[in-house]
Amino acid sequence: MQAASSCDLKFRSTNPTAKTARFSHSLPKRVSVQCGYRSESFSFPNGVSVSRADWQSSCAILSSKVDSLEDPGGLASKIAVVNGHSNGSVNLGLVPVEKTSGKLAPVQPLTITDLSPAPLHGSSLRVAYQGVPGAYSEAAAGKAYPNCEAIPCDQFDVAFQAVELWIADRAVLPVENSLGGSIHRNYDLLLRHRLHIVGEVQIPVHHCLLALPGVRTDCVSRVISHPQALAQTESSLDRLTPRAAREAFHDTAAAAEYIAANNLHDTAAVASARAAELYNLQILADGIQDDPGNVTRFLMLAREPIIPRTDRPFKTSIVFAAQEHKGTSVLFKVLSAFAFRNISLTKIESRPHHNRPLRVVGDGSFGTAKNFEYMFYVDFEASMAEARAQNALAEVQEYTSFLRVLGSYPMDMTPWSMSPTEDA
Ligand SMILES: O=C(O)C(=O)C[C@]1(C(=O)O)C=C[C@@H](O)C=C1
């Protein structure tokens, strides 16, 4: 366990192409938060509603066995810290923000407004996403929270921290793509942080090949993009740019921005049509995803859970670790707890068990086997307000050493369409 030591909040300009005046005034600054801490749950001083208490007590059965991932230097102390009430060793070092005028703004301390709870009415919700404007994650934030203020972050971890530190009200982060598979980093971060899943959005991802105006496809010797986007366009790139090297970039739109900012005539990016517009690039090829129905699923994260309901389709996400001495059939038993109650599973993912990654087995007569230990993430189609879901989890708890409900939230029921998103 490590206590908080220092915390730097940096607001970075993400607009190296500021000469394109059309956007230099409107692009938000990207948040980059560097903190040596892990979060923990936070109790709100003004209490919670009765119905929320009901929800929490219905889940109490689960919390009783939740593994401790506590952190003495956690969120509550961070909030005191950023309010200026805590130890003097904390360096809030806000990097001066570049204004559109080109002048540097004075260093601004966080104010009480930066730390206020999510606005209920009137002002827009601040939604953290990973990437720069034009990224698919920005489009997902817009679908999840129309009219929100989208806050670009340079890493997934930063988006989590932006919510924990009350810089943002929500985060919207990708967890899986229909072609590229799971985004493992976000599964790991869900466990390390204490945010709650409050919703999901799925967006069709419609990729384009972008380059500087005048560049021909046969002159492209390098294609840069997010690794997921490169994976989703593999066959198209083999056909369009067979000799070009492929290089990973932080996000699709950042790749487009990089080409524009550095005037790269030999490089193309896989990104959205909106990125082409934002960074003044031409579209060499449109719709280059290898499957026309390419969809990415994003989770909406908040500091507080929502109250589960039964009047519309809900999904619940859990993570668990098997009890060590329960034999080899634990996974089968857990899954059958859902099957016997007619609860459909929509996703199962395993990740290394970071606290206990290996189990050595065998009596030594033939040596010892080293079995890997896992955390299992399961999504199932039921609301935690339903008795069958509560009973299933009560049973699952018997076979597990660790169990956490990550969230119970409405399913994205948007009618199926393969056309590109309006924003992307
Ligand atoms: O790079 C982006 O534009 C992102 O929003 C990230 C991301 C991802 O992490 O999978 C999101 C959707 C697409 O699947 C490709 C990339």
Q: What is the 3D form?
A: globular
Instruction: State the end-to-end distance.
Output: 41 Å
Structural class: alpha+beta
Give the amount of beta strand, in percent.
Answer: 25-35%
CATH C-level category of the largest domain: Alpha Beta
Enzyme class: lyase
Keywords: Amino-acid biosynthesis, Aromatic amino acid biosynthesis, Chloroplast, Lyase, Phenylalanine biosynthesis, Plastid, Transit peptide
EC number: 4.2.1.91
Catalytic activity: L-arogenate + H(+) = L-phenylalanine + CO2 + H2O
Layout of SSEs?
Layout: E1 7-12, H1 21-24, E2 30-35, H2 50-58, H3 60-63, H4 75-82, E3 126-130, H5 136-144, E4 149-153, H6 156-164, E5 170-177, E6 181-182, H7 184-192, E7 196-204, E8 208-211, E9 222-225, H8 227-232, H9 234-240, E10 245-248, H10 252-262, E11 267-271, H11 273-278, E12 282-286, E13 295-302, E14 314-322, H12 330-339, E15 345-352, E16 358-364, E17 367-372, E18 374-380, H13 387-399, E19 400-410
Parallel strand pairs: 3-4, 3-5, 9-10, 9-11
Antiparallel strand pairs: 1-2, 5-6, 5-13, 7-13, 8-11, 8-12, 14-18, 14-19, 15-18, 16-17
Helix pairs in contact: 12-13
The protein binds prephenic acid (PRE).
GO molecular function: arogenate dehydratase activity; prephenate dehydratase activity
EC number: 4.2.1.91
Domain Prephenate dehydratase: 126-303
